[in-house]
Amino acid sequence: MAYSDFTLKELKAKFGISNKVFNVFDEIQPLEVSKELAEALELARLLPVRSEKAKSELIIMPILIDLMKRNQKFFTIYSGDYLHADKEKGLTGECDFILSKNVGTFEINTPILTIVEAKKNDVEIGIPQCAAQMLGAKYYNEDSGDNIEKIYGCVTTADDWIFLRLEDDKLTIDNRKYYLGEVEEVLGAFQIIINYYKEILK
Questions:
Q1: Range of the domain at 173
Q2: Does 66 have pLDDT greater than 90?
Q3: Cβ partners under 8 Å of residue 92, min gap 6
């Protein structure tokens, strides 16, 4: 079993992870789009961005790189890496993106956020996989001695974005969907998450 094989029902039965649809963020402060990101997204609009690979390279990664620059490289980005948390429990497999606290090591160190590219252009399909990866990140951190209270996740088609939060055994799925057309809000949501980790991972 791998992250992509889980359903929310199985996460509940196997790990006791309950879920609810509620607001993940109390209030979002939109961030102004940088010149570099605006140019990257404009270029993406001019190209036939149809495949997951194209969306990853031309939309998702530029947004993540912009956030990394804004935050003085507080975190680093792993793309297509494997997060082996607990193979016996099925918490293993490839992740589209993992944001990890940047400590300059080759291996993943303290994963703080996982991002899933939704299949079939349906953002909700990726929610169980993202939840499983978030649980994997929690296990991975605990095994390294980092007991982080909250783990965040995001599912995206590059056009639609849904954020998730795992706290103890409770998964919150945001009741608001964000869109690429309001990328300032997407950036603001990510910044709230990054600010949280900046406070606890000094």
A1: 3-200
A2: yes
A3: 2, 3, 82, 83, 84, 85, 86, 136
